[in-house]
Amino acid sequence: MNGVIFYAEERRRLLWIWMKIREGYMGIADFMGRMGVEVWGNWCKRFISFVRCIKIRVS
């Protein structure tokens, strides 16, 4: 359930950023900076923890 809530929150944030770009409030550099920090940071953390879980189970 928590994963579903997190996904919905992430999607809502991406839609908000996309709307701001379409409205012209945000430059491309600012957009890429936010995307890099927020989204890639979250996905990298998840991927690393996922790999660790697999390693623990395999060993």
TrEMBL record:
Highest taxon of the lineage: Bacteria
The protein's name: Uncharacterized protein
